[in-house]
Design brief:
- By secondary structure, this protein is an alpha/beta fold.
- The protein has two domains: 11-45 and 299-387, Aspartate Aminotransferase, domain 1 (Alpha-Beta Complex), CATH 3.90.1150; 60-296, Aspartate Aminotransferase, domain 2, CATH 3.40.640.
- Helix content is 43%, strand content 14%.
- It contains 13 helices and 13 strands.
- The strands form four sheets. Strands 2-10-9-8-7-3-4 form a seven-stranded mixed sheet, with helices on both faces. It has a two-stranded parallel sheet with strand order 1-12. A two-stranded antiparallel sheet has the order 5-6.
- Helix 3 packs across helix 10 (285-295) and helix 7 packs parallel to helix 8.
- The longest helix has 29 residues, at 297-325.
- The termini are far apart.
- The mean pLDDT is 96.
- The chain binds 4'-deoxy-4'-aminopyridoxal-5'-phosphate (PMP).
- The site of 4'-deoxy-4'-aminopyridoxal-5'-phosphate has 12 residues, from helix 4.
- 4'-deoxy-4'-aminopyridoxal-5'-phosphate (PMP) is lined by residues 34, 99-101, 126, 179, 207, 209, 239, 241, 247, 252.
């Protein structure tokens, strides 16, 4: 019976990890994989996470089920971190999910259950967005969000897409630290998006996977807060993978901003029901860690400080890299002002392959680079390999 199946292609990013590991050249550089790396090339565990885990080890006295909605105290703290006091809390329904991916999938399942026709997706985007939405049965309408040669957000296209969307359509937005381009929406642009979404009765689905990786914990959600202050209904998918370094613990949440407390209750019951028929309940550990950190002023301060140091390391590399690359591509000076872990270089697939084979520099064929994959001291060596292509 399994013969009815066909072999599926390997995930190109995961395949890249294998190729990198096999490469024995000492100066090889991995700009592919989407995790934060420090100056030693290591993906660290936050000090506050370690401290919270110690506490949990000592105090946790049961492994009984938590329930399909997950840890309610975690949800409360996480929503405060994301949204502050922007909206009436009784109008918000939250459900803990296995990572941001789980949050996006529950959001897509909910939209499908609501009879939603589809979702608008600006390209390029995180490669798993479209497959998740498709798997939930949504139609996907795409538009060009970013122009790689000029390194600029093509905001006119965003406006045209929103103006062309039918009432009730969902619209995927990256809260900040756009993956894969690093492209930034200005405050005025967020205001325009919010006004259009409200006017045209669209449902924003905001993907927040990098809070604290761009300009700061509050700055990275400023646009999102403005949006949810204006639209009556929205979905927010939160990933704790990067902001808390909890990747493999699968920690995240889906929040729905609704128009009333009773609507929030209905949405919550639907999200919980969708979780129940998929994975039943989310894993506990990562959410317990986040809850412990956010509830404790000292752990929270330490976490925010470490996150800030990571952000500043990435910003420093962005500036040095931009200075070097602009000597060959003037537009790449923009990398300095972009946000988060990623930028997208105007390279052909052949150039990406040459960097790999001739210099041991690894990145996906799209030309996306993980800024955090670079060490500060390495940038000066790496830049000439790009500029001499
Ligand atoms: N959204 C974006 C934009 C991402 O880059 C990622 C992860 N790389 C996710 C969502 C999902 O993250 P998680 O690992 O928490 O599922």
């Amino acid at each position: 019976m399994f013969d009815a199946l066909t072999r599926q292609p390997d995930d190109p990013l995961l395949a890249l990890i294998g190729l990198f590991q096999k490469d024995e050249r000492p100066g090889k550089v991995d700009l592919g994989v989407g995790v934060y790396r420090d100056e030693t090339g290591h993906t660290p565990i936050f000090r506050a996470v370690k401290a919270a885990e110690k506490r949990l080890l000592e105090t946790q006295d049961s492994k009984a089920y938590v329930g399909p909605e997950g840890d309610l105290v975690f949800l409360d703290h996480l929503w405060s971190l994301v949204a502050g006091d922007t909206v009436e809390r009784s109008h918000v329904a939250g459900v803990q999910t296995p990572g941001g991916s789980g949050a996006l999938r529950l959001a897509a399942d909910l939209i499908a259950r609501m009879g939603g026709r589809g979702i608008w997706l600006g390209l390029p985007s995180w490669p798993n967005h479209a497959p998740i939405f498709k798997a939930a049965g949504l139609n996907i309408a795409t538009y060009d969000f970013f122009d790689i040669p000029s390194q600029s957000v093509t905001f006119d296209n965003v406006v045209t897409a929103l103006e062309g969307a039918a009432p009730g359509d969902a619209v995927l937005l990256h809260a900040s630290c756009h993956n894969p381009t690093g492209g930034v929406l200005t405050e005025a642009q967020w205001m325009e998006i919010a006004a259009l979404a409200a006017q045209r009765n669209l449902l924003p689905l905001v993907d927040l996977a990098y809070q604290g990786f761009g300009r700061g914990l509050d700055q990275d959600v400023a646009g999102l807060r403005h949006l949810i202050g204006i639209v009556p209904e929205a979905l927010v998918a939160v990933s704790c993978s990067k902001s808390f370094g909890l990747y493999r613990e699968r920690t995240g949440a889906i929040f729905a901003l609704t128009a009333s407390a009773s609507s929030a209750d209905t949405v919550r019951s639907n999200l919980a029901g969708l979780a129940r028929t998929s994975y039943s309940m989310p894993p506990d550990h990562g959410a317990a860690v986040v809850r412990t950190i956010l509830a404790d002023p000292e752990l929270r301060r330490d976490w925010a400080e470490e996150l800030k140091a990571m952000r500043l390391r990435m910003t420093g590399i962005r500036h040095t890299l931009a200075e070097g690359l602009r000597t060959r591509w003037q537009s790449l000076g923009a990398i300095a002002g972009q946000e988060g872990m990623f930028s997208m270089l105007p390279l052909t697939e052949a150039e990406v392959m040459r960097l790999r084979t001739e210099h041991g520099i690894y990145m996906p064929g799209s030309g996306r680079i993980n800024i955090a994959g670079l060490k500060t001291a390495e940038v000066a060596n790496v830049v000439p390999k790009f500029t001499s292509l």
